[in-house]
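Changelog entry: the RND family efflux transporter, MFP subunit record was regenerated in this release. Current contents:
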Amino acid sequence: MKCAPLNVCQQRFSRGDVRRVLACVTLALCAGCHKPAGLPSTGPIEVTVMTVEPHDTPVDFEFTAQTESSREVQIRARVDGFLDKRVYTEGQLVHTGQTLFLMDPKPFEAALQTAKGQLAQQQARLYVTKANLARVFPLAKQNALSQKDLDDATGNEKQAEAAVIAAQGEVETAQLNLGYTTIKSPLNGLSSFAQQQDGSYVTAAANGLLTTVYQLDPMWVNFSISENELLGYRSQIDRKQLVFPADNDFTVSVILADGTLFPSTGHINFANPAFSTQTGTFLVRASLANPTGSLHPGQFVRARVAGAIRPNAILVPQRAVLQGAKSHFVWVVDKDSKAHQRVVEPGEWHGDDWFITEGLKPGERVVVDGAIRVTADTPLKITGAPRPASQPAGANAPQKEPQQHLASRQSGQTVTQ
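Regenerated structure tokens:
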């Protein structure tokens, strides 16, 4: 058998094969155009909703604060002399009347003896003048002596009495100076380091500072309120959006640097009426008990001021508030379980919730969980109440904002309107 040329076989095979391939492709495309029977269609989006219910809500305000001793006393030398000895332990608690320093008393003891001697001399002189006056007076009455003699005797007695009073003052001054050589603490508190060492010569005017004692109980907590914050509070009070406690009797608690809450609470005891020209803020001071002395002066803390109330406030979870290109909004569910976009005006954070000042009415339903997947006028499947913020979120649930982002009061999730 004679074979056909190779190019002829390739041509015949290619034409038949092309027809069969095209037929198979056409059948496959046609089959793909029809949806198989029995496959379910995409259902409504599953969400949780909450009903808007206004209620009076207590609110707290937090400020950066610094602790301060309620009584800070500088221990100074009141006389000039040599410092003999420091008799307290630096940095330890000291008590009222406890001796802190001893100065060389010998010069002051000598000065006291001199003053006592001068007092004795003046007292002797007074004795003589009194005796002389006692002799002159009856003789002057009998005109045995002139009136001038009587006046001189009387004047000498008065001068002697004045000299005794002056000498007594010198004695008291010398006794005080001697007492100042023993330097004691005037209060219970925490002692600082010694500014002068043993053997140093100290003068009351130049280098008389010896140490400092800080009273720890009670402790003061100072914080500042800016002018913008104060004006904002006043504006909210005028609009009935904020109510302060009677007599501004706020309760102040302290949050330490590690985030723990100090066990004692206090109250505001001073507010500076004048703004600082350098910072534009005015100082507020609170006092709280510190019986264990765990708070020390100069610590940076957070002051939480409680007692204010927002009347009829509307709160929604943070994850329910979305941010579009121009504004914040939520998804409001109508009676047909369809979502509609509603622009809202958010206020401040409140824990895991957000105050809504405008845009929502009582009784309306707001999408909480699943809001990020909702589109306008789409049917929804309401599965229940919103999940607590502490409960772990699912794969499609929005994540909770970090604490540092909450403080900035910016929105949580951003979507396109």
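The chain is about 25% helix and 35% strand.
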